[in-house]
Amino acid sequence: MRQILVTGGGSGIGRDVAQDFAAKGDAVTIAGRRMDALEETAKGMDMRCLQADVTDEASVKMLFDRRYDVVVANAGAGHVMPVAQMPSQIWHDTLAVNLTGVFYTFRAALQEMGPGGRLIAMASIASLKGGANLAAYAAAKHGVLGLVRSLAIEVAKQGITCNAVCPGFVDTDMAAGAVKNVMKRMEVDQSTAEKMLVANNPMRRMITAVEVTAAVRFLASPEASMINGHDLVVSGGEI
């Protein structure tokens, strides 16, 4: 039985990833800021819920009271805002949760992780291209990819892999927030806003959490032992 840690496990992609691992018999620990959301994820399943803030170094360290075989750094947040109007605090907060949080999580994991270990970061297609009004988020996610590629080289001789999953717009609460922002900014209805968000996706639809989870599951599998420093894109052909 593998020991799995998923940060940001209270909703969205993290919830689906955690439930998938648990359903397949792994021992899953989920972490996040809201205990009620974590408990909702764990309902009816054998999971350990730990309240933690990935932007706080001490809080992250407390998660590692055991050795994990797979660590999925999924916690993240984004703001849609032009640079000219962006307060410094929004910039710092976005980098803290999306980039520094991954650094804290992976650094702590490596204190105990052994051969066969898997470090998986939830990145984004924003790791591979820019986007208007997404500068802070895109900068953070570009940083995640740089961290993953560099760390992959460092841990390879230990038999550990470090990879990233880069989804496009996924049908989660975060995407719902982006839809509302487009509705307000462009003065359009929900259906139009959703079509605008997926306009660059050749399949013209949002990605499901299940489709992203499948990529995570593969990178965590024994069959992926020679995939290292890779960005696995789940975007319907957008990237």
Structural class: alpha/beta
- Name the CATH superfamily classification: NAD(P)-binding Rossmann-like Domain
Beta-strand residue percentage? 15-25%
Count of separate DSSP helical elements: 8
In words, what does this structure look like?
The protein has a single domain (3-170, 207-234), classed as Rossmann fold. α1 packs across α8, α4 runs parallel beside α5 and α6 packs across α7. The protein is globular and about 50 Å long. The longest helix is centred in the middle third of the chain and has 22 residues, at 88-109. The chain has 239 residues and is an alpha/beta fold. It is 42% helix and 15% strand. The chain has a 7-stranded parallel sheet with strand order 3-2-1-4-5-6-7, with helices on both faces. The mean pLDDT is 93.
Give a brief rundown of this model:
The chain has 239 residues and is an alpha/beta fold.
